[in-house]
Write a structure and sequence with these properties.
The complex is a heterodimer of chains A (about 400) and B (about 240).
Chain A: H1 2-20, H2 23-57, E1 60-65, H3 71-79, E2 82-85, H4 92-101, E3 107-110, H5 114-120, E4 126-129, H6 138-162, H7 183-186, H8 188-191, H9 194-219, H10 223-227, H11 233-264, H12 279-305, H13 310-322, H14 326-333, H15 348-359, H16 365-391
Parallel strand pairs in A: 1-2, 1-3
Antiparallel strand pairs in A: 3-4
Helix pairs in contact in A: 1-11, 2-9, 2-11, 9-11, 9-12, 9-13, 11-12, 11-16, 12-13, 12-15, 12-16
Chain B: E1 3-5, E2 8-11, E3 23-27, H1 34-41, E4 53-54, E5 57-58, H2 63-69, E6 70-73, H3 85-95, H4 101-111, H5 127-139, E7 145-149, H6 157-172, E8 176-181, H7 184-190, E9 193-198, E10 201-206, H8 208-215, H9 220-229, H10 234-242
Parallel strand pairs in B: 3-8, 3-9, 6-7, 7-8
Antiparallel strand pairs in B: 1-2, 4-5, 9-10
Helix pairs in contact in B: 3-4, 3-5, 4-5, 5-6, 8-9, 9-10
The chains are: A mainly alpha (about 400), B alpha/beta (about 240).
């Protein structure tokens, strides 16, 4: 036993020194994984949120055909910060083409008989010209539609009042919403993606170290002399695994910290959300995710040691990175509630725990323990498989 | 010992010995099974059949004990480019579980005359420097047996000479040195005992003089060709070995 731990410690120290002198490993662990992901995430998020916020406060211009027939309507739309452009397009065809090309977000066509129909009490026709295949226009279209129906309601209510009827009779139901979500729970719509980024950051952090320490060592011709030394193969594997784990754990910590910092600058409050990412929550997330780093290190070691060359190792480890993300993608489509059974599934269990933490829920102790135990058990199996590989002569031939 | 890789018989029941205080050379053309035989003795490969003992230890039963008694310089062995020569050697010393490591590392570096590159990273080393550091790494724990697989490949004259001196020194210290080569002159100049391998079998073993006498050839090269090929046409013989 002393030989095992002593050997593993020597290997760990050497791999650490070697990796700290390897620029590729450092960039992968401390720049790409932890900083690139959150930065990208924050940029996309900041952009989306600020767009939602800004667009409802800013006037939009909507080109229209035949709007001269609807003077009152125009006044109402103006009040809703919608400015109608009368002369921009000569006919309906030109307007439709512009919408299809994306030059115009949304257009309005007013029927020639609009004013007459309105006067006679018949439905007065309007067309909203929109392109439903273009997501970017949805906000403008929505604003136009809601302003139009609001106008319709006002006109309808006026008609009823003129006839001596209380407009309220046309509204037998008053459907109100009692939203029980908290601002931090609503933020999960956006921050739920965070686990996904954390998993990638963790794996990216150690992938280079795992490859260098196994397939790389064989490729460069340093593996064979190493295997002739009086060190148990398990010590070699444990030393290399520990160094990979250290890099992954460091990368994970950095990623969470940079999420915590980035969240302070996100305008979440303006859309009724709040980022529950204070130091205590970040620490909780780190503890919940740490077993995954153990599994990630084991997994990458196994994959890299079963490949024949550096290149092959890079290909297969990149493919292997997708596997832990799969359960998260699946439940993004079919959301499920945390249960003890789901805690047996690595990466999914971490996702559920992290999501709970961000929502501000109390973590169920048995859940956290089951998640950690099942993940570490799988990691141990990976390490065992790697040791078997190191004991086999196939490692060299 | 016997060893197969799929359908290929790499070794067919080869049988030889190497004694302490002697340099034993495994001589043979490419593909004769030299590397396979040495790798089995280093415990990195396992023989399919037969047995080998080192200092009375069964290599299959006690691989760790065997490994602590050998120093190995495998074919095309490389160093860790991010580590200095000293760190490379110290890493092996630590893995061998040595105590006064710094002292042992300094001694072996002095012996192999690599103190001038001790604290340079191995990335930029020449082939000669690399082999000398790799040899120092293999010798740092003062092993009783030294195993070298084609150590002089790609070395210039000066580096080859330095390597020969180091090997000779080990012999004079009473150690067992086993090394492989396909260069006849080298084996003839250095070895006390020669084992000629061809197509996975021992074709002949003995001293250089003994081999000359057994084959009736004055020139060792002629003797080699006659033993290995059993034919005066060397090309034909070569084709039989590799085929």
């Amino acid at each position: 036993m002393p030989r095992l731990t002593n050997g593993a410690w020597v290997v760990f120290r050497k791999e650490l020194l070697d990796s700290l002198r390897e620029r590729r490993a450092l960039i992968s662990a401390f720049v790409f994984g932890p900083l690139f992901g959150p930065a990208l995430f924050a940029a996309i998020l900041g952009f989306t949120v600020s767009r939602q916020v800004d667009e409802s406060l800013q006037p939009i211009a909507v080109p229209a055909i035949g709007a001269a027939n609807a003077a009152n309507l125009l006044g109402h739309l103006h009040g809703a910060l919608i400015d109608i452009e009368h002369d921009r397009f000569a006919d309906v065809r030109a307007l439709r083409d512009a919408v299809r090309r994306g030059d115009v977000e949304v257009g309005l066509v007013v029927d020639e008989g609009f004013a007459a129909a309105l006067r006679s009490g018949a439905p007065a026709r309007l067309w909203v010209v929109a392109d439903s295949s273009n997501n970017a226009n949805q906000i403008a279209e929505g604003r136009l539609r809601s302003a139009l129906s609001a106008y319709g309601r006002i006109v309808g209510a006026n008609r009823l009042q003129l006839r001596g009827v209380d407009p309220a009779v046309t509204q037998p139901l008053a459907v109100l919403t009692d939203d029980v979500s908290t601002p931090s729970a609503r933020a999960i719509l956006i921050l739920g993606m965070m686990t996904y980024f954390l998993i990638f950051a963790t794996l990216l952090g150690g992938i280079q170290v795992a490859i260098d320490a196994t397939a790389g060592e064989r490729d460069r011709g340093t593996m064979e002399p190493l295997l002739t030394l009086a060190v148990p193969r398990s010590s070699l594997v444990i030393g290399k695994f520990s160094c990979t784990l250290l890099f992954m754990a460091a990368s994970l910590g950095l990623a969470i910290a940079s999420f915590g910092v980035a969240a302070r600058f996100l305008p979440l409050a303006e859309v009724g959300m709040s980022a529950n990412l204070g130091p205590a929550v970040c620490l909780g997330i780190y503890c919940a995710m740490l077993p995954f780093a153990v599994l990630g290190a084991g997994m990458m070691m196994t994959v890299a040691s079963y490949t024949k060359s550096f290149r092959e190792a890079q290909t297969y480890t990149s493919l292997a990175m997708v596997v832990p993300a799969l359960p998260i993608i699946v439940i993004a489509m079919n959301p499920l509630q945390p249960s003890l059974a789901w805690m047996l599934v690595p990466s999914l269990s971490q996702h559920l725990l992290v999501t709970g933490l961000i929502k501000g829920e109390t973590v169920v102790a048995t859940h956290a323990a089951t998640s950690a135990a099942s993940t570490v058990l799988l990691a141990a199996l990976c390490v065992f498989a790697t040791v078997m590989r190191y004991r086999s002569e196939r490692l060299l031939i | 010992m016997s060893k197969r890789f799929g359908d290929i018989h790499a070794l067919r029941e080869i049988d030889f010995s190497a004694a302490d205080g002697h340099i034993t050379g495994l001589l043979g053309p490419n593909g004769a099974g030299k590397s396979t035989a040495l790798r089995i003795l280093c415990t990195t490969l396992r023989a399919d059949g037969g047995a080998a003992t080192l200092d009375g230890l069964d290599i299959r039963a006690a691989p760790l004990a065997v490994r602590s008694r050998i120093g190995v310089l495998p074919h095309n062995a490389n160093l860790y480019g991010n580590l200095t020569a000293r760190e490379n050697i110290a890493y092996y010393a630590a893995l061998q579980g040595m105590r006064n490591r710094a002292e042992a590392v300094a001694q072996v570096m002095a012996k192999l005359d690599i103190e001038d590159i001790a604290d340079r990273r191995a990335k930029g080393f020449s082939q000669g420097q690399r082999v000398r550091v790799a040899l120092a790494r293999a010798l740092v724990h003062d092993p009783q047996t030294l195993i070298l697989d084609e150590p002089t490949n790609g070395l210039d004259v000066m580096a080859t000479r330095a390597l020969r001196d180091a090997i000779g020194e080990r012999r004079n210290a009473g150690c067992c040195v086993l090394f492989s080569s396909h260069v006849m002159q080298e084996v003839a100049a250095l070895c006390d005992r020669i084992v000629i391998l061809a197509a996975g079998s021992v074709a002949l073993a003995g001293s250089a003089d003994g081999i000359r006498a057994a084959t009736g050839c004055d020139d060792l090269e002629d003797a080699f060709v006659s033993v290995v090929g059993n034919s005066s046409d060397g090309d034909d013989a070569y084709r039989t070995w590799v085929g």
